[in-house]
């Protein structure tokens, strides 16, 4: 009986180590600078081609995700500081939670009927 308890404890410790390691890996993957590549909602759709034209003319919209659980969204000079919770997949702005998804290269934020897609820079 004692050896079963020891095995279970060792297994739980191993699972905890792997889960913590995967959190760091996910955080390492999401950290970086992203460019807004499309936006839809609020009566306005901006395609990837239109966003390329905006960037070429000097208008930029970016999202910087930092490793200290903070982020900054800069939409054409309007900057918003926020924090994020990777396990809940939310950005927190002024106490309000906004869900996002991350597929390894894109962050998609959906808020108040608007969807913004950000692509990670190389």
Task: Write up this protein.
Strand 1 (32-41) and strand 2 (44-46) form a beta hairpin. By secondary structure, the chain is of the alpha+beta class. 31% of the residues lie in helices and 46% in strands.
Keywords:
eight-stranded antiparallel barrel, 2 helices, 31% helix, 46% strand
Give the overall shape, derived from the CA principal axes: globular
Average pLDDT across residues? 81
Strand content: over 45%
Radius of gyration: 19 Å
* Helix percentage range: 25-40%
Task: Write a compact overview of the structure shown.
Helix content is 31%, strand content 46%.
Outline the fold blueprint:
Layout: H1 2-30, E1 32-41, E2 44-46, H2 48-56, E3 61-65, E4 70-75, E5 78-85, E6 90-93, E7 96-102, E8 106-111, E9 114-120
Antiparallel strand pairs: 1-2, 1-3, 1-9, 3-4, 4-5, 5-6, 6-7, 7-8, 8-9
């Amino acid at each position: 009986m004692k050896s079963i308890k020891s095995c279970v404890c060792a297994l739980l410790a191993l699972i905890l180590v792997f889960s913590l390691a995967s959190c760091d890996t996910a955080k390492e993957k999401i950290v970086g600078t992203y460019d807004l590549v499309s936006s839809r909602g609020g009566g306005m759709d901006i395609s990837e081609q239109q966003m390329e034209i905006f960037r070429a003319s000097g208008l930029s919209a970016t999202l910087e995700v930092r490793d200290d659980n903070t982020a900054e969204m800069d939409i054409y000079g309007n900057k918003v500081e926020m924090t994020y919770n990777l396990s809940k997949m939310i950005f927190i702005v002024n106490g309000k939670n906004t869900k996002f998804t991350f597929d390894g290269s894109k962050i998609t934020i959906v808020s108040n009927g608007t969807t913004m897609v950000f692509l990670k820079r190389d």
